[in-house]
Amino acid sequence: MMLKPLTDRVVIKMTESEETTKSGIILAGTAKEKPQIAEVIAVGPGGIVDGKEVVMQINVGDKVITNKYSGTEVKLDGEEYIIVRQNDILAIVE
After folding, report:
1. CA 94, CA 63: separation in Å to the nearest integer?
2. Which single residue of 4, 17, 25, 30 could bond 21 by disulfide (Cβ 3.0 to 4.6 Å)?
3. pLDDT tens, N- to C-terminus, the chain (94 residues)
4. Residue 24, Ramachandran bin (φ over 0: left; ψ between -120 and 50: alpha; else beta)
C-alpha cells in the first residue's frame, strides 16, 4: 500500500535518534527526545489552499526538520509515517 498526499501535505518518516550521547552515555527509551529530522517519503501536488496558491518546495528524499509536535501519525504495513503540511516543515537539511 502507498500513501499519496493531497494538496500541500507531505508524508515523512522520522529518522532514528541516537541511543548514546557523545560522551558515551546510553539513554533509556523514556529519556530520548522525539527526533525532529525526517526523510520525505511523498509530496502532494500543491495547488490552491485557503484561496492561495501553494507551490511545493520539498522533494521526495529530502531530509527535513519539522515542528516538534506537528502532523498526524499513521501506521501502514508496520511502518510509522507522519503527514504534515508543508508549512510545518522548518528547514531542509543539506
Report:
1. 7
2. 25
3. 789 999 999 999 998 765 666 677 766 555 455 568 999 999 999 999 899 999 999 999 999 999 888 899 999 999 999 999 999 999 999 8
4. left
Virtual torsion, Cα 77, 80, 84, 88, nearest 10 deg: -160
pTM of this structure: 0.79
Q: How far apart are CA 71 and CA 90, in angstroms?
A: 13
Do residues 44 and 56 lie in contact, with contact meaning Cβ atoms separated by under 8 Å?
yes
Neighbours of 88 (CB within 10 A): 18
